[in-house]
Design brief:
Length: 351
């Protein structure tokens, strides 16, 4: 039976002196074994996410780990710094809180007796002391983040409203427009390429005459769709000239200008384009809408809170890293760590 707990098993203390020390962080050590445990945990997560499976080759696994290891090292140092800071603040987990955690774990895993719980721990390679250390570590880290980060992040209703007013497009649904078109296409010419406006005066007169004849039929009572089907050179003629519905944001600016001020059923002024003469009928349109502030207030609060929390956390960790004394025993990992820290600090410095 796999025990559901919110932390990985700690490294066995009795072997710590024999393990390769990768880095000392203010005197506390991170070992090669701890790094490898974190790498194994990451591969488990990749497997759960479907990023790797039984057929994934060694070379691909190695590539995954090479890419992820710098961040794994940063995370390990972050956690150790937070843990040290919490202990300096005097944060500790009392027996009553630990007993409550144990009761909760038992309930989640349907464990009824202490003996059964000990057996499950043993199957995971843990003792009650191991579990207590892991839970205390997690409690201290969580408490420090609450005190140093989350408690300093707040957002008023006024700030949420200001965000809403500054970011109108995020909560806007564009209007929908359906058109019908008639295209009287200019003849193609190898010399003019795609732009077929350079035709003879006689050819231009014929184009205009075809367009006016089409519009005269509409004015006489035939539907725009019927005329489009019979005379339009556009592919849309197969559907009575119908285009859309389209988002108003997807309309070409020139077409949007032609339709401005038109009501459903109105016909635009004809326009000469690179491909010939075009005229449009506004079939239907809906106005753009905006989600009311009351509907998106919580979304804004969560979004801004998360952004501020990340900024506050980065600033807090930046102070801890700046004050930390790191003693490296592995130059490759040191280089990977320093490169990753520069990448993390770069966007923050530019914001």
């Amino acid at each position: 039976m796999a025990l559901t707990v919110a932390a990985t098993s700690p490294v066995a203390a009795q072997n710590i002196i024999l393990q390769e020390i990768l880095v000392k962080v203010n005197g506390a050590i991170i070992t090669k074994t701890e790094l490898e445990e974190r790498q194994v945990q990451l591969l488990r997560e990749y497997r759960q996410q479907g990023l790797i499976n039984e057929t994934t080759g060694d070379a691909e696994l190695e590539a995954f780990l090479n890419e992820a290891t710098p961040q794994i090292v940063v995370d390990a140092i972050d956690e150790l710094l937070i843990l040290q800071h919490g202990r300096e603040m005097g944060i500790e987990m009392d027996d009553e809180r630990f007993a409550g955690i144990v009761d909760n774990v038992k309930e989640q895993n349907n464990i009824e007796t202490d003996e059964e719980f000990d057996e499950v721990l043993a199957a995971e390679g843990m003792t009650m002391e191991d579990l207590e250390r892991a839970m205390e570590r997690q409690f201290i880290i969580s408490s420090v983040q609450q005190i140093e980060v989350i408690s300093k992040v707040a957002m008023t209703d006024t700030e949420a409203r200001e965000y809403y007013d500054r970011n109108t497009d995020e909560y806007r649904t564009p209007g929908q427009i359906a058109l019908r078109e008639i295209l009287i296409a200019a003849p193609g010419d190898a010399a003019t390429g795609a732009d077929n406006r350079l035709v003879s005066a006689e050819a231009e007169t014929k184009l205009e005459a075809r367009l006016q004849a089409a519009l005269a039929r509409v004015a006489a009572g035939e539907t725009f769709a019927t005329v489009a089907t019979e005379v339009s050179d556009a592919p849309s003629s197969a559907n009575g000239g119908l285009i859309g519905p389209l988002s108003e944001d997807d309309l070409a600016p020139a077409v949007a200008a032609l339709l401005e001020g038109l009501a459903a059923g109105d016909i635009s002024e004809p326009v000469r384009t690179a491909i010939g003469y075009q005229v449009f009928l506004l079939e239907s349109s809906t106005q753009a809408t905006r989600q009311p502030f009351d509907e998106v207030r919580d979304d804004i609060a969560n979004r801004v809170f998360n952004e501020r929390r990340q900024d506050e956390f980065n600033e807090f960790m930046g102070r801890l890293h700046a004050e930390a004394i790191l003693e490296w025993n592995n130059e490759n990992l040191q280089q990977a760590y320093e490169n990753r820290m520069r990448a993390i600090e770069g966007p923050a410095a530019g914001s």
